[in-house]
Write a structure and sequence with these properties.
The protein has ten helices and 13 strands. By secondary structure, it is of the alpha/beta class. It has one domain: Glycoside hydrolase/deacetylase (TIM Barrel, Alpha-Beta Barrel). The relative contact order is 0.14. The N terminus is likely disordered. Bound molecules: zinc ion. Zinc ion binds next to strand 7. Zinc ion (ZN) binds next to strand 7.
């Protein structure tokens, strides 16, 4: 089908971030550098069988000063960009599934561990369902690239995220993901990895994931509750983990995950100033907006969920508007 053409304008700050992102040393996708304030044509995700991409006008604002890209913009198959003072939001409904442990829980597991543990067999069945239902897994960075730059998404996009960096993710999730050729995003606790804490991945395993095309995101250095912490403590956890992971995998870390879903306004401000482009919360839902890339919504996959339960909940959130 011919994608419906809609016009979306890009505020200077987002365009600048997008330009930086697109031209960053680790940029893997073709650079799409947008001029601040330019009207850019956007082809939303397939609207026939996928959550509808929408855009919502924001209150008009004083146009911010234009930042000039340092290299020539990539030509776009679009009308000549035109200056405008209007700001807008790009939004899309994409489910982001939240996993933790990927193993049979130990016999003495408490209710929390049970709830956080999906067995390898169940995970396999869930991935089989996603494939048969026509879902196309992408990484958080791909979703961010759509929200900030308009880079096209596949039909029925979905994101698989794994919190905490457990070793069973490498041992049990990776083989299934490779089998289905599904990319995913792994949020690791950098200091736990560096300390070789039992039950967590090693740096070699993290590097392997990255080589396999998985995105490695930060889940802080020590998994502390960031909310209400001093600026220096938060900055150390946020910037320190980014630097540590980047020094290992050699590509920029631009996605973050709040430990226990806790954060405050200062957390978001530090994420923005240290080069992260997005962060996932534990807010349940699938409405994702360029205005809120630091508050991406997710769907918790509980240990009790069968593949059919997962299908039910994805459908529930698809229809809920959340
Ligand atoms: Zn966590």
């Amino acid at each position: 089908m011919t994608p419906k053409r809609i016009l979306v304008t890009v505020p200077a700050a987002i365009a600048f971030a997008a330009a930086s992102f697109a031209m960053g040393p680790g940029a893997q996708t073709p650079a799409v550098v947008q001029i601040a304030g330019a009207i850019v044509p956007v082809f939303p995700a397939d609207e026939t069988d996928t959550p509808t991409a929408t855009w919502t006008p924001m209150a008009t604002d004083t146009p911010a000063p234009t930042s000039t890209p340092t290299s020539p913009p990539t030509p776009m198959d679009s009308p000549t960009p035109t200056r405008t003072a209007t700001r807008s939001v790009r939004a899309v409904r994409v489910p982001i599934l939240m996993y933790h442990y990927l193993s049979v829980p130990p016999p003495d597991a408490d209710i929390y561990r049970l709830d956080l543990s999906v067995t390898p067999d169940t995970f396999e069945a869930q991935m089989k369902y996603l494939a048969s239902a026509g879902y196309h897994p992408i990484r958080i960075s791909d979703l961010t690239d759509y929200l900030l730059n308009g880079t096209q998404l596949p039909s029925k996009p979905i994101v698989l995220t794994f919190d905490d960096g457990y070793r069973d993710n490498y041992e049990n999730a990776l083989p299934v993901l490779k089998k289905y050729k599904f990319p995913a995003t792994f949020f690791i606790i950098a200091q736990f990895i560096d300390d070789q804490k039992p039950g967590y991945m090693t740096w070699d395993q993290v590097e392997d994931l990255a080589i396999e095309g998985m995105e490695i995101g930060s889940h802080t250095l020590d998994h502390i509750d960031l909310r209400g912490k001093s600026r220096s403590v938060q900055a150390s956890e946020i910037a320190g983990s980014k630097a540590m992971i980047e020094s290992r995998i050699g590509t920029p870390v631009e996605s973050f995950c709040y430990p226990s879903g806790q954060y405050d306004a200062q957390t978001i401000s530090i994420l923005r100033s240290t080069g992260y482009l997005a962060a996932t919360t534990e807010i349940q839902g699938m409405y994702q907006s360029s205005n809120d890339t630091y508050q991406l919504r997710r769907i918790r996959v509980r240990g009790s969920y069968s593949a059919a339960d997962l299908a039910y909940w994805i459908k529930y959130f698809t229809q809920s508007g959340k």
